[in-house]
Design brief:
By secondary structure, the chain is mostly helical. It has one domain. It contains nine helices and no strands. It has helices spanning 13-39, 50-71, 77-80, 89-110, 116-120, 132-162, 167-180, 188-205, 209-228. Helix 4 packs across helix 9 (209-228). The chain is globular.
């Protein structure tokens, strides 16, 4: 007789799921750095192109499918992905604001030495009303789809798989993995710190919703600033 599942969790499967999660995020990082090394930065008008939004939707759909496959047999998805209300919304919003301000301050301090925004090359240099439709589509991806899928991948399943090794290990692990997945060199530090801040928020609130909200606000803020400058 094979191992018996207890509470929907197959014994001995946790390390295997963690291994496959590392394989997934490692592959995402490898693809990101390989793409950057061979293709360079995205074109300056990437967010004004329909292809950018379409390719992002395809990639995120594939990532979500793989994440759900890895999570299979690990118990209720609600628990694995922390799909529950935070212990306290006022506390969650306060912590989210503190993380947001901290990241802005760290980014401002590092800006003279590292130009992460310029390196990523996705923020447009201005508004082009003639291509508003593809921009809106890309904005929906950046502010809506990306935060949801990335948070489910890193602060959701990744955090849950790493937490048995310690809260600090989970926060640092998913933060670094999140930073590497963007394929940047100068931006790696600030993105990793942002990822850790989101993981800290997930840890303190017990919910994936505050990190998703903060991630969406941060992306929207960066997009708005790029248009205003």
């Amino acid at each position: 007789m094979g191992p018996v599942a207890v509470g929907g969790v197959t014994p001995g499967a946790q390390p295997r799921r963690l291994m496959w999660w590392w394989v997934l995020v490692g592959a995402l990082a490898l693809l990101a750095y390989s793409s950057r090394a061979t293709g360079g930065r995205p074109p300056e008008d990437a967010l004004y192109q329909w292809g950018t939004a379409l390719s992002a939707v395809i990639v995120y759909a594939a990532v979500l499918s793989l994440v759900l496959l890895i999570a299979r047999g690990g118990g209720p998805l609600r628990e694995q992905f922390a799909l529950r209300s935070p212990r306290s919304w006022p506390l969650a919003l306060g912590l989210a604001f503190a993380v947001f301000v901290a990241i802005l301050l760290v980014g401002a301090a590092l800006d003279p030495f590292l130009d992460a925004g310029e390196e990523q090359g996705l923020t447009p240099s201005g508004w082009d009303s003639d291509r508003a439709a593809p921009f809106v589509a890309n904005a929906i991806v950046v502010v809506g789809l990306a935060p949801v899928i990335e948070e489910l991948t890193y602060r959701g399943l990744g955090f849950s798989l790493l937490r048995p090794y310690g809260e600090a290990a989970a926060i640092v692990g998913v933060g670094v993995a999140f930073g590497l997945a963007h394929g940047l060199v100068e931006g790696l530090l600030i993105l990793s710190l942002f990822g850790m801040g989101l993981a800290f928020l997930r840890s303190r609130t017990g919910s994936i919703y505050p990190p998703i909200l903060l991630h969406a606000v941060f992306n929207g803020f960066a997009l708005a600033v790029s248009l205003a400058v």
